[in-house]
Amino acid sequence: MGERDPLTGAETTGHTWDDNIQEFNNPLPRWWLWSFYATVIFAIVYWTMYPSWPVASSYLKGLTTITYQTDAGEEVTSHWNTRALLQRDMQTGKSAVAQKTYLKVIEDSSYDDIAVDADKMAFVESYGNGVFGDYCAACHQSGAGGVVGEYPNLIDDDWLWGGSSTEIETTLKAGRVGFMPAFEETFNEEQLTQVASYVLSMSGEENDATLAKAGEEIFQGQVGGCHLCHTSAGTGLKSQGAANLTDKIWTIADVRGATTPEEKLSRVKSVIHNGVNRVMPSWSSRLSDTEIKVLTAYLLNKRATGDQ
Amino acid sequence: MNEVPLKFVEYQKIIEPRSVKGQFRNIKTIILILAFVTYFLLPWLPWSRDIGPNQAVIFDLSSHKYYLFNLVLHPQDILSLAILMVFAAAFLFFITTIAGRVFCGFFCFQTIWTDAFRLIERLIQGDRVTRLRLKKQKWNFEKVRKVGLTTALWLALAFWSGLTFTLYWSEAGQLLVDFFTGQAPLAAYMCTAILTTTTFLAAGMAKDVICMHICPYSRFQSAMFDENTAIVSYDKVRGEGENGRAKPLKTLKTQEDRTKAGVGDCIDCNYCVQVCPMGIDIRDGLQVACIHCGLCIDACDNIMDKQGWAHGLVSFSSENALAKKKTSRFGIRTIGYGLASLIAGAFLVFSVVNSAKLTVDIAHVRSPLYVVLSDGSIQNSYKFKFYNMTSKPATFDLSVEGLPNAKVDIGKLKHIELKASRGLRVSVRVRQASADVKRNANQPIRFKLTPIKGEFEEAIIHPSQFITP
């Protein structure tokens, strides 16, 4: 050390090869060296904090682990990651715990208790809105207004399968099959017109009285047999999910959307001709009892009860 | 080339002001005590409320409520805060046009805390001369003890100032316990740490530098001054005479001797310079650094008393008064800023008194816009969001106006019952019978909340709409 190359005057390491080849002493720049040491320290810190090394079928998880439960209820300890952090927060976070506490309150309350308590109702409204949005809104629409001809409207006061709490719970848990046979082979064109006229007459829509009279015979008699489900008064059997034909609500034939009497007639005719085949799936395997309870309370509040 | 480099900032030596007794010092001391008693004890003042913390002043961030004695403010009242700022600015300018920077000299927290820090320093290290001697002294036990003790006390005061500020934002007793047991939120520690540091640096280290170089006020104060503004000023005519100031040597002891010699009343004792916390010489005239604390007036008055001469060589007086002209109190600036303060003050009182006690948000449900019921009547749905800002429960009856034979349905609830100081969301439906429905229309309607129970007396009306097919 300290020796200098006579030609250039540069410092050499003092090593000499092959008589005259010398090694200049050019140390690394100070900043580079310190940066290098810093990265070494960083690596050690990182290595201890975060997942680092495979061990058999597992790996070193580091010091910052997160413990949470999987959807199956299994406890898992994972290395630090935002996904696990979210999972844990949704299970044991402050808001999650508060929500669970309130869900328990709803679970322990009767439907009448919920309906008269503004705070419970407000919770049902906001929690129910989430469940409804996730599972129901795809068909029944976000505001539960349904689609005429496809999915029932849940905010009017006429419910095909009944709108009491037990009936709604049953519908949610077991699902429903709404079926009306197609009369394309039973009725000829004239009979179709007659029955449709009678159906229109029942809810006070414009119709041809003679056609309706003939239609009544088919409706109430053996030929059509419509009264078996829709009842002879036309109000419908709830057990069959048969529509009330005497009110102003049209769930399948879009009579309200039609402008002329001819159009109304043809829309009703087409429903009788084609029949109805609608399915609501069962939710008991996908929603917990508490969720079904919240949904029921939510729908009871959504459902128009009529002027009482 | 031996150019002298430009000096932008002249680094002054640390000022060691001498203590002084007098009326302005007394006023400053009284304000200091009042300010400290108020600031440090206010979070501990209990207050009974129907609802909310029993602390007189608490800015409760977690519940979004700001309690000031019997007044409860909400984030919605942010306008009041803005008006308070406008009022404070206008009133400050108004005072400045009349009496110069008295805010700086007497009320500014920088001045007050610096004053307190200097008081501590004087108690431990003695007055100016002793302090200057200590400064030159080598680091021996006495110096370490005195400087160490001063710094420790400064830190303690700075810490307590910072912690007290934090106590305003939470229940003081609980937070204090939590703070020392490591249970307090991180924000409390950060807030206290930052304020301890800034208080120590500003009042212990920077002192006058804050007023000179950091605070913008010293720079634009001149915009508010005119010949009628009362400022701390030196009566040059009386002090200097024809031949300037002179020390009271044997031949210049009495006023007659001095007048004969053409010398003024200033005996050049430098007392006014030594007491100045800003380290300026008031005899050089009005300066940007002068904070109008009046300590030089006290100093000069003491000397004049000793000489048996009249006070007022240095005094609070306007340029006009010094020139023996009439001082007008009603300059355009004074009237302008005065009016602005009045208007802002009136607006502030108005906005606080009339701040909303109830907020109602109504959203007409858009999906679907309406629904037809079995009897043909039309129903619209609304989502209501209430917030009761009073500390009493309130009950309202909800009805609708502007729609013939319309009925309001709030489910099985009888009334809108709001808990004290709480919010509530309610689904509301409005129905109109088929016969009354105006087809294909978007009609304006009014929801009317008729008070039944609580602090509300008048009906509250909110507009909305009713949509029909």
From TrEMBL, chain A:
InterPro entries from the entry?
Answer: CcoP_N, CcoP_N_sf, Cyt_c-like_dom, Cyt_c-like_dom_sf, Cyt_C_IC, Cyt_c_oxidase_cbb3_su3, Cytochrome_c_Oxidase_Subunit
Subcellular localization is given as: Cell inner membrane
* Example of a GO biological process term: oxidative phosphorylation
**Could you give the cofactor binding note from the entry?**
Binds 2 heme C groups per subunit.
The principal localisation class reads: membrane
Q: In which pathway does it act?
A: Energy metabolism; oxidative phosphorylation
Q: Which GO terms describe its cellular component?
A: plasma membrane
- Keyword Glycoprotein (UniProt): no
The entry's heme c 2-binding residues are 180, 226, 229-230
Q: Which Pfam families match?
A: Cytochrome_CBB3 (PF13442), FixP_N (PF14715)
Residue ranges of the TM segments: 31-50
Provide the cofactor list for this protein: heme c
User: What family is reported?
Assistant: Belongs to the CcoP / FixP family.
**Subunit structure, per the record?**
Component of the cbb3-type cytochrome c oxidase.
Q: What does this protein do?
A: C-type cytochrome. Part of the cbb3-type cytochrome c oxidase complex.
Name of the protein this chain belongs to: Cbb3-type cytochrome c oxidase subunit
Automatic annotation (TrEMBL), chain B:
One GO cellular component term of this record is: plasma membrane
Which Pfam families does the entry mention?
A: Fer4_18, Fer4_5, FixG_C
**PROSITE patterns per record:** 4FE4S_FER_1, 4FE4S_FER_2
Select a single GO molecular function from the record's annotations and give it.
metal ion binding
UniProt key word Signal: no
> Which InterPro entries has this protein been placed in?
4Fe4S_Fe-S-bd, 4Fe4S_Fe_S_CS, Cyt_c_oxidase_cbb3_FixG, Electron_Trans/Redox, FixG_C, Helical_ferredxn, Ig-like_fold
Q: What region holds the 4Fe-4S ferredoxin-type domain?
A: 257-285
Q: Which UniProt keywords apply?
A: 4Fe-4S, Electron transport, Iron, Iron-sulfur, Membrane, Metal-binding, Transmembrane, Transmembrane helix, Transport
Under what name is this protein listed? Cytochrome c oxidase accessory protein CcoG
The coding gene here is ccoG
